[in-house]
Amino acid sequence: MRAVIVAAAVAFIISLLTTPVAIRAFTALKAGQPIRSLGLASNEGKKGTPPMGGVVFIVATLIAYVAGHLALTTLPERQIAQEKPTMTALVLLGLLVFCGAVGFVDDLLKVRRRNSDGLSAKGKLLGQVIIGIGFGIAALYVASTNGQTVASEHISFIRDISWLNVGKVGSVMVFVFVITAMSNGVNLTDGLDGLATGASTLVLGAYALIGYWQYRHWCADETFARANEYCYQTRDPLEVAMIAAAAAAACVGFLWWNTSPARIFMGDVGALGLGALIGGLAVATRTTLLSILIGGLFFIITITWVIQIVSYKTTGKRVFRMVPLHHHFELAGWSEVNIVVRFWTVAGVCVAIGLGVFYSDFLTAVG
After folding, report:
1. CA–CA separation, 275 and 203 (whole Å)
2. Is 268 labelled a binding residue?
3. Which of 128, 130, 189, 320 has a CA positioned 20 to 30 A from the CA of residue 103?
4. 193 assigned binding-site residue
5. Is 269:333 a contact under the CB 8 Å cutoff?
């Protein structure tokens, strides 16, 4: 637990203290976010606010992971908590950094062109797919010394579903879908000050708890193996807990400056990176289907966006005033702060229910 706390504390402090530095640096470079009004009250006064703030919490998470590993050297249980960076860490942090890089290019093009047109939708999707394939192969084909891989050939809910074996190729395809879907879900949610940051903090916090719970009931621990007790067949759950906690804490530090009125935006670099990390955490913890519930707000915003597009293209009619969904409520007269707080509440309820389902499975098994 000490390593997880150290990683979280370091990430929070770095993010909190360096975000103002990033604000001044981006402002000096005149890297302001181009804003299209679209008749939305929330867009008034936001022109010129620096984007690309996601760089701060991505870097903070990386540094915090190193700090957490340094703390591991003082732990008596380090014999089952890999002291060296593992494949799990390389996959999760790689998704965060490389999908964040796709978003960075998108943000940079917007700033340079002085308009809201960055990478095309196809360009961003292609980048996400390529990254997903690369790390999906690593997650499926690179095993630890005990044969355990980061991802599984089975579709998972709270653990692998034994009869849903899709094979290695199918599992890589599922991996790519989860990463791109969650990445774009967070990106769609990032439309109001602090909305995506706060919601991501809740989801990442949930995965920190899940990772640590799996670590305390890990099949690789000989105590559980000898006793034949209920345990989780995952790889490097302490790494999962450490990275999720670090990312959550980094988001909290960033939220101090990102909440309304935002002095900096996370941009696509932050949204795509966070979404990819959350998708990777779902795969690594064998909670792929459960992530739909844990990340329920992202799912709701994505599915309503799909409904709007399909309805308009097939019938010429819109179901909502505007998508993503938070803009629908803006046009209905809700204030930006009310929307953000209420959407955070929805995200929190989804996280609470998801954790409840996860823990109830444990209680059922041991009861």
Report:
1. 10
2. yes
3. 320
4. no
5. no
**Which residue range(s) make up the domain with 279?**
2-366
- pLDDT of the residue at 44: 61
Q: What is the pLDDT of residue 240?
A: 96
pLDDT for 58-111, tens place per residue? 999 999 999 998 887 776 554 444 556 789 999 999 999 999 999 999 988 888
Q: What's the rounded Cα separation, in Å, for the pair 154 and 229? A: 22
In which residue are the tokens 């620096």 written? 50
Q: With both helix axes pointing from N to C terminus, report the angle between 167-189 and 87-113 in degrees, rounded to the nearest 10.
A: 40
Domains of the chain: total: 1
Strand partners, 232: 218
**pTM given for the model:** 0.94
* Side chain identity, residue 217: H
Q: What is the pLDDT of residues 1-50, one digit of tens each?
A: 888 999 999 999 999 999 999 999 988 877 666 666 565 656 666 777 88
Angle between helix 121-141 and 167-189 (nearest 10):
140
Q: How far apart are CA 130 and CA 79, in angstroms?
A: 35
Partners of residue 156 on adjacent β-strands: 160
pLDDT score for 76: 59
Q: Which two tokens stand for residue 226?
A: 């000898």
Closest CA to 31 of 107, 124, 116: 107
Measured from the Cβ of residue 113, the count of other Cβ atoms closer than 10 Å reads 11
**What is the DSSP annotation of 67-103?**
HHHHHHTT-TTGGGS-SSPPHHHHHHHHHHHHHHHHH
**Amino acid in the structure at residue 164:** L
